[in-house]
């Protein structure tokens, strides 16, 4: 999977991500430190867009960050959802850690 970084120079981070089975949410992509779940941007990029959107209209943020208007809304939702705990599985319960397993990593979904 690839993510677009923050800055004037295009930076792509490529890393192998795994699909895991969560007892609560089913099969999901494993957590990465640099990106929110479902995002094609780094966490810093999403947070920057979300912070700018607090004070500026979406049209200004989209022009400044060079993304479309709808992407600004998705960045806002990701940062807000993650801060509220809505997108995370929550704290790890050691009693159910054995139930979480890594799938084979195949691309057939």
UniProtKB/TrEMBL annotation:
InterPro entries: Transposase_HTH. Residues 33-78 form the Transposase IS204/IS1001/IS1096/IS1165 helix-turn-helix domain. Pfam families: HTH_Tnp_ISL3. This is Transposase IS204/IS1001/IS1096/IS1165 helix-turn-helix domain-containing protein. It comes from Butyrivibrio fibrisolvens.
